[in-house]
Specification:
alpha+beta, flat, about 280 residues
Length: about 280
């Protein structure tokens, strides 16, 4: 593939999207059905936002799409070089760019699309400089809702999983959590109390009127199961000496966005994220 690959060459043309007005249930169905992590949001055929798995996990009780989505998304033209997209994705800490031509949505380009194109660029540089050592491991017996909260607090979308012997045994991602999650409806009660006091200053007792308000709550909920029940154990790994394009090809072929990097003993050294490989593209 030529070095001056443009967005039009690699973008997704048949784009899945959500529309306003819309609901969380509709978005969840799209993400699960299309096996994607996020989609553009349209209003009157114009892109007004992006909604992703992170939005759903961050606001589990929010039902309205207009309040869930990230507004005013960064967009890109189809006729610019892929390095422009790589720079935007890195600088804005995002994973996808709606592709706009004459104000219309004509495609979507993601980190995975750019990394897929890097598989053909024969970049033999070793991946060691691009490793992410800021990983947040979890225990394989940790209940899934706790793992989801840990990942939210740590601002990560994947965690290595360790067993009782501290061995690296798998990965858990926001994709796995969303796939296992359900919409749970419940009825909750709120007590609203007022106190009426007698005007006589010698009155020691007061009259308390209590009104109970019952309301329905709907939230996205991860099942209360151990992480080991849904973690990914069939892992593609690399070593620090693996090449950039070699790892890009592994990500493309296996439809993954991170690769655990291990030493000769199988000990985890870090994660190579698809986002990290974008830096290699800009530096090469």
């Amino acid at each position: 593939m030529p070095r001056n690959t443009i967005i039009r060459d690699i973008m997704i043309k048949n784009v899945a999207y959500a529309t306003i007005p819309g609901s969380r249930e509709e978005v969840l169905e799209i993400l699960k059905d299309k096996q994607v992590s996020g989609v553009p949001v349209l209003k009157d055929n114009k892109v007004v936002g992006i909604v992703s798995r992170n939005n759903l996990l961050k606001y589990p009780e929010e039902e309205q799409l207009a309040l869930l989505m990230t507004r005013d998304p960064v967009t890109i033209s189809p006729d610019v070089d892929i390095t422009v997209a790589a720079r935007l994705l890195i600088d804005h800490h995002i994973r996808r760019l709606p592709v706009i031509e004459e104000e219309d949505l004509v495609g979507l380009v993601t980190i995975a699309d750019i990394v897929g194109s890097m598989a053909d660029l024969n970049i033999t540089d070793q991946i060691e400089p691009y490793l992410n050592n800021g990983i947040v491991p979890v225990w394989d017996e940790t209940p899934l809702p706790i793992v989801a909260k840990i990942m939210e607090f740590a601002n990560v979308n994947v965690s290595p999983v360790l067993d009782d012997s501290l061995s690296f045994v798998g990965l858990i991602s926001d994709r796995d959590i969303i796939s296992a999650s359900i919409i749970e409806d419940s009825v909750e009660v709120s007590d609203m109390s007022t106190t009426a006091e007698d005007e006589d200053e010698w009155t020691w007792e007061s009259i308390r009127d209590t009104m109970s308000i019952y309301y329905s709550v709907s939230r996205i909920k991860a099942p209360n199961i151990p992480t080991k029940e849904i973690m990914v154990t069939d892992l593609i790994t690399a070593t620090p000496m693996s090449g950039v394009s070699e790892c890009a090809l592994s990500m493309k072929r296996n439809d993954i966005d991170q690769i655990p990097v291990v030493n000769g003993n199988g000990d985890l050294l870090g994660l190579l994220r698809d986002r990290d490989l974008l830096k290699a593209l800009l530096e090469h």
